[in-house]
Design brief:
There is one protein chain. This protein is α+β, with helices and mostly antiparallel strands. Among the domains are: 143 residues, DNA methylase specificity domains (Adenine-n6-DNA-methyltransferase TaqI, Chain A, domain 2), CATH 3.90.220.20; 144 residues, Adenine-n6-DNA-methyltransferase TaqI, Chain A, domain 2 (Alpha-Beta Complex). Helix content is 33%, strand content 22%. The protein contains ten helices and 24 strands. It has a five-stranded mixed β-sheet with strand order 4-11-8-9-6. A five-stranded mixed β-sheet has the order 16-23-20-21-18. A hairpin with an 8-residue loop joins strand 20 and strand 21.
C-alpha cells in the first residue's frame, strides 16, 4: 500500500486488531449509529399458507457480500400477521449473518424485506454512509467471528454486534473512502471475473481434448465407423465396443467398518468416501483412515494402487478417480481393477471421466441417482489395442498436466487479487491510507 499516502497524525484506536487510526476520527458503538437494530424469525414450515407469497424474506443463504435485490423465498401477509417478530426493514439495511455456515456474510438490501432469526439487521443509520459500515464489517469479519461464542455453532449475536466499536471519520470523508473502494474493488472484481472465465474456457478445452483423444484416437486420418451406440457416435474402424466386465478382473464396492468398534478407525489405511473426490485424477489422502484390523476382520476391503473408483450414489454419482496408493473406500464407491492384457487403467479412467454426465443421466433412481455393480459391469467401453491406449494416455497426461498447471497459476493470481482487495478495504476503512484526494478510476492497480 506504499503507493498511497498516510494521514499526518494518528492516535490509538483502542482496538487491538485495528491499531492506530487518524487523529480526527471518532470512536463510536454500532448501537449509537443506527436507529434500528433487529432481526426476524422463521414462520412454521409446516404451514404452507405462510410461504410463496409476495413478501421478500431473507435467510442467510441469500447474503452475497454485496447488494441484495431478491430473496430465494417469499412469505405471505398471513405470516406477517401471525408472527409479530417479522418486521419490514427498509432499503439500504445492512444484514449480517450471525451464525451457521454463512456466519459473517453481509448484504445491503435494495428491496424492502423481512428476515429470519439468523440475520442481524442494521437500519436507518445516523449521519453514516451505510456502504462505509459494510466495508468496515467486511474488513473486520474474521476478527468479529473470532469473538463469537458457542462451540458447535459459533454465534456473533445482536448484542455483540451492538457493542462493537467503530472508528469513523466525518460523513464527507466516509463518502470519499466509499467512492475509492467502489471504484477499486470494481476493477479488481473485473480482473477476477476475467480470470475465472479463462479457467472455464481452459476446463472446456481440457474436456474437449480428452473426449477427442479417447473416442477418436490420435490419428486424424483414421477411417471411422458407427459404434452402434448413439451416445458414443463414430469410432476408429478397427476399434470395438464391449461391456466393461470383459476387460476388468474385479468390479467390487467398498464397505464401512462398524462404527461400534473404535479400533477399526484412525489407522494407517486411507479410506475414501465420495466427499474425497475433488476433481483430481489420483487420490492419495482420504479425510478418514481405517486400521489393518478392519481389513483382517473383513470389515473393509483393501484395493491396490491404480484401482479405478467410481461414485455410485448421490449428487456426485459418476465421479471418478484412481487410487494413488493402496487403500479402501466405502460402499458408495465401486472399484474396478483392470485386466492389464485388455485395458490400461488410465485409459479406463479417462473413458469414465468423459462419461460422468452420461452415467448420471442413465442411472436408475427415484430421488437419488444410483448405479450398482451390474450397471458398471454392463457399461460400454471402447476396446482398442493396448499400444494405442498407452499412446493416448501419454498424450493426455501431458496435455492435461499443462492445462492443470496453467489453471493452478490463474487460481493463485485470483487468490492474490482477493487478498489485495481485502487488504485495500481494510487499510482504507481503518485510516491506514489517506484517499481523500483519490482521483481517477483509470488509475492502475
Amino acid at each position: 500500500m506504499s503507493r498511497y499516502k498516510r494521514y499526518e497524525r494518528y492516535k490509538d484506536s483502542g482496538v487491538e486488531w485495528i491499531g492506530e487510526i487518524p487523529e480526527h476520527w471518532n470512536n463510536k458503538k454500532i448501537s449509537w449509529i443506527f436507529n434500528i437494530i433487529g432481526s426476524g424469525t422463521t414462520p412454521s414450515t409446516s404451514n404452507l399458507e405462510y410461504y410463496d407469497g409476495d413478501v421478500p424474506w431473507v435467510n442467510t443463504g441469500d447474503l452475497n457480500d454485496g447488494y441484495l435485490y431478491e430473496t430465494s423465498k417469499m412469505i405471505t401477509d398471513l405470516a406477517l400477521k401471525d408472527y409479530s417478530t417479522l418486521k419490514f426493514y427498509p432499503i439500504d439495511t445492512l444484514l449480517i449473518a450471525m451464525y451457521g455456515a454463512t456466519i459473517g456474510k453481509l448484504s445491503i438490501t435494495k428491496i424492502i424485506a423481512t428476515t429470519n432469526q439468523a440475520c442481524c439487521a442494521l437500519a436507518q443509520p445516523k449521519n453514516v454512509n451505510i456502504k462505509f459500515i459494510f466495508y468496515w464489517f467486511l474488513a473486520n469479519r474474521n476478527h468479529i467471528i473470532a469473538m463469537a461464542y458457542g462451540g458447535g455453532q459459533p454465534n456473533i449475536s445482536q448484542n455483540l454486534i451492538k457493542s462493537l466499536r467503530i472508528n469513523l471519520p466525518e460523513k464527507h470523508e466516509q463518502n470519499a473512502i466509499v467512492n475509492f473502494l467502489d471504484q477499486k474493488t470494481a476493477v479488481i472484481d473485473g480482473l477476477i471475473a476475467d480470470k475465472e472465465k479463462l479457467i472455464e474456457l481452459l476446463q472446456e478445452k481440457r474436456q474437449a481434448i480428452i473426449t477427442e483423444a479417447v473416442t477418436k484416437g490420435l490419428n486424424p486420418n483414421v477411417r471411422m465407423k458407427d459404434s452402434g451406440i448413439e451416445w458414443i457416435g463414430e469410432i476408429p474402424e478397427h476399434w470395438n465396443v464391449e461391456p466393461i466386465k470383459y476387460m476388468v478382473k474385479t468390479i467390487q464396492t467398498g464397505t464401512t467398518p462398524t462404527t461400534k468398534n473404535d479400533d477399526y478407525f484412525d489407522g494407517d489405511i486411507q479410506w475414501f468416501t465420495p466427499g474425497d473426490f475433488h476433481g483430481s485424477k489420483e487420490l492419495y489422502e482420504a479425510s478418514r483412515k481405517i486400521s489393518n484390523l478392519a481389513v483382517i476382520d473383513n470389515e473393509a476391503r483393501l484395493f491396490p494402487k491404480n484401482t479405478v473408483m467410481i461414485v455410485g450414489i448421490g449428487a456426485t454419482v459418476g465421479k471418478v478417480a484412481k487410487l494413488g496408493v493402496e487403500g479402501s473406500f466405502n460402499q458408495q464407491i465401486t472399484g474396478l481393477i483392470v485386466n492389464e492384457q485388455r485395458l490400461n487403467c488410465d485409459y479406463l479412467y479417462y473413458w469414465l471421466y468423459i462419461n460422468q454426465e452420461t452415467i448420471k443421466n442413465i442411472s436408475n433412481y427415484t430421488t437419488l441417482p444410483i448405479i450398482n455393480n451390474e450397471f458398471v459391469k454392463n457399461f460400454e467401453c471402447l476396446s482398442l489395442p493396448l499400444d494405442e491406449q498407452q499412446a493416448i494416455v501419454n498424450y493426455l497426461n501431458q496435455k492435461t498436466s499443462e492445462i492443470d498447471d496453467l489453471i493452478l497459476k490463474i487460481r493463485l493470481q485470483i487468490q492474490k487479487l482477493k487478498e489485495y482487495r481485502q487488504s485495500l478495504i481494510s487499510e482504507a476503512v481503518t485510516g491506514k491510507i489517506d484517499v481523500r484526494e483519490f482521483g481517477s478510476i483509470s488509475e492502475v492497480i
